[in-house]
Amino acid sequence: MAIWTLWWGWLGLALLLAIAEILAPGFMFLGFAIGALAVSMLLLNTGLSLGLPLLLLIFAALSLVSWLILRRVFALRKGQVKRFEDDIND
Fold it and tell me: What are phi and psi of 31, to 5 degrees?
């Protein structure tokens, strides 16, 4: 059995991507982590044995959707400017 057909392989990938998000913040890896977690839950709950190309397609689609949702929820509204009043060293 290949590693990409096992749910815990995708869960491990989600964990690694979440750790990468902590080390490099800015929602760069969080969408990918959510996509990997969703694929993991899909494999765990359905028990399907899908091929790598289909799993990667599902992963890419779910990652894109999650990234778009994160961007919509956490991004600044159009016309807003982020301003900092205090310095981090104050």
Answer: -65, -40
- Tell me which amino acid residue 12 is: G
Nearest-angstrom CA–CA distance, 62 and 43? 14
Q: Whole-model pTM? A: 0.77
Element (H, E) at 66: helix 52-74
CA 18, distance to chain mean position in Å, is 7
Q: Rounded to an integer, what distance in angstroms lies between the CA atom of residue 38 and that of residue 2?
A: 19
Task: Please give the pLDDT value at position 75.
Answer: 75
40 vs 18: CA distance, rounded Å: 14
